[in-house]
Write a structure and sequence with these properties.
Blueprint: E1 5-9, E2 15-19, H1 25-28, H2 34-37, E3 49-52, E4 62-65, H3 68-75, E5 88-89, H4 92-105, H5 111-124, E6 127-128, H6 129-150, H7 155-158, H8 161-167
Antiparallel strand pairs: 1-2, 3-4, 5-6
Helix pairs in contact: 4-6, 6-8
């Protein structure tokens, strides 16, 4: 979420927020299926309409209409949903570039530093639509590196052109 915490809901119903930068990502690598780490459809690109929270204000969802069929589907909801203008500010590119080594090496900060980093980035980092773009770019660079390292023979055919254009904006580590 845009508060730079990972929100966990446990089986007993309790909720826990853990600062993103305090996650032991090097221990979480086995949590993600290889298929997730080689997926470039993070935005459900073939859907007519997509609803999601990434970068939206708390309590709100994005609605992305991609074509006339999606627009027709949205008309069914007229009068049933509340909308507001999309907000966007900041620069995702510097944040993505700086996050690549941390993702790549599984860097974990001490919890006090992770909380401080979350507060600082929440104040000066990308917000709204620019945060959503940060998330997409971060996932694509992470997944591109995964495919390049683990399935190099499939890299050219597997990674879609739109993902390659996003990844090309960033300097990736050499293998």
């Amino acid at each position: 979420m845009q508060d730079f915490n990972v929100h966990f809901r446990h089986e007993d119903g309790s909720e826990e927020k853990v600062p993103f930068f305090g996650l032991k990502t090097n221990q979480l690598k086995d949590v993600f299926a290889p298929s997730c780490l080689s997926c470039f459809d993070y935005t459900n690109a073939l859907a007519d309409i997509v609803i999601g929270y990434m970068g939206a204000p708390f309590g709100w969802q994005w609605i992305v209409v991609r074509n006339p069929t999606g627009a027709e589907m949205l008309t069914v909801l007229e009068g049933l949903i509340e909308t507001q203008p999309v907000e966007s500010q900041g620069d995702r590119k510097a944040a993505v570039q700086q996050s690549i080594p941390a993702y790549d090496k599984g860097v974990t900060l001490p919890m006090w530093a992770a909380k401080l980093m979350g507060v600082v980035i929440e104040k000066i980092g990308p917000k709204g639509l620019e945060y959503a773009r940060f998330s997409i770019d971060s996932h694509f660079t992470r997944n591109y590196l995964h495919v390049r390292r683990n399935y190099p023979q499939k890299l050219t055919a597997h990674v879609p052109e739109f993902a390659k254009r996003i990844v090309a904006q960033y300097q990736l580590p050499e293998d």
